[in-house]
Automatic annotation (TrEMBL):
Residues 69-250 form the IclR-ED domain. The keyword Transcription regulation applies. One of its GO terms (molecular function) is DNA binding. The lineage of its organism: Bacteria, Bacillati, Bacillota, Bacilli, Bacillales. This is Glycerol operon regulatory protein. It comes from Sporosarcina newyorkensis 2681. May be an activator protein for the gylABX operon. It holds the Pfam family IclR_C. Residues 6-68 form the HTH iclR-type domain. The keyword Transcription applies. One of its GO terms (biological process) is negative regulation of DNA-templated transcription. InterPro entries: GAF-like_dom_sf, HTH_MetabolicPath_Reg, Tscrpt_reg_IclR_C, Tscrpt_reg_IclR_N, WH-like_DNA-bd_sf, WH_DNA-bd_sf. SMART domains: HTH_ICLR.
Length: 255
């Protein structure tokens, strides 16, 4: 059972969450009725919140709005927020949903940089580490980025040295152009054993205001990821990407 103090704390937090963009001002009785709480208890909590600066009361209307203490905490949160801290819980959720490794890769000049690697527990993994770099033309993680670069930059990459890392590495420029167009049409990329042997990867681009920033990837051993799983993982990838993009826009985060 919750203690009386914990119930009061939960009620206080619930009251603070009632103040939204759509509803910035509340009367005490109105708030109690909306939440189904005893109005005497609600007034006591509001008085405590007011004394500590979390709400303020209009002396004429007697209605409440959020106070300066909330703004101060929000400012501290915003100033200390960074992209990886925001993204990692979503990547961990995707790893838990798929049971496979999840990567966050960013564009860095003419190559890619692996920022985050989250791996499942108690499963066979393959060697990949945060901080590793890779060319843009090889594998789903990287081609999902390349596909959304300006045409002149794509051609610079395709006319450069294209190293064959495995038997499946795509090095023919025409084949790569066709694959890049397919990635743009589908909204995702899939690769089989291209950069690392016996690994299947699925990736989606991370695009903010029309600019490609990086990609999110689910990858695992070929024997563990069949076509059915690929079709199940791609929507999960897209949902995660959409959540990350929404948060980056909301908090004006950049890499």
């Amino acid at each position: 059972k919750e203690s009386t103090m914990l119930k009061t704390v939960n009620s206080a937090l619930a009251i603070l969450k009632m103040f939204t963009r759509e509803k910035t001002v509340w009367g005490g009785r109105e708030l109690a009725a909306e939440m189904g709480l005893n109005h005497t208890n609600v007034y006591r909590i509001l008085e405590t919140l007011e004394r500590n600066g979390f709400v303020s009361k209009d002396p004429i209307t007697k209605q409440y709005k959020l106070g300066s203490a909330v703004w101060e905490l929000g400012t501290i949160f915003y100033e200390n927020l960074n992209v990886q801290e925001m993204i990692n819980p979503h990547l961990q959720k995707l790893c838990d949903q798929t049971g496979e490794s999840v990567f966050f890769t960013v564009l860095d000049g003419n190559e890619t940089l692996m920022l985050t690697v989250i791996e499942p527990e108690n499963k066979v993994k393959f060697p990949v580490t945060a901080g590793s770099r890779a060319p843009l033309y090889v594998g789903a993680s990287y081609r999902s980025i390349l596909a959304h670069l300006p045409e002149n930059k794509i051609e610079d990459i395709l006319q450069g040295e294209l190293i064959k890392y495995t038997e499946n590495t795509m090095t023919n420029p025409d084949d790569l152009r066709r694959d890049l167009q397919q990635i743009r049409n589908n909204g995702y990329a899939i690769s089989h054993n291209e950069y690392t042997p016996d690994v299947v990867a699925m990736a989606v681009p991370l695009i903010i205001d029309g600019d490609i920033l990086g990609s999110l990837t689910v990858a695992g051993p070929s024997y563990r990821i069949n076509k059915t799983q690929q079709s199940e993982f791609i929507p999960l990838l897209q949902q995660t990407r959409d959540t990350v993009q929404w948060n980056m826009k909301k908090y004006n985060l950049t890499l």
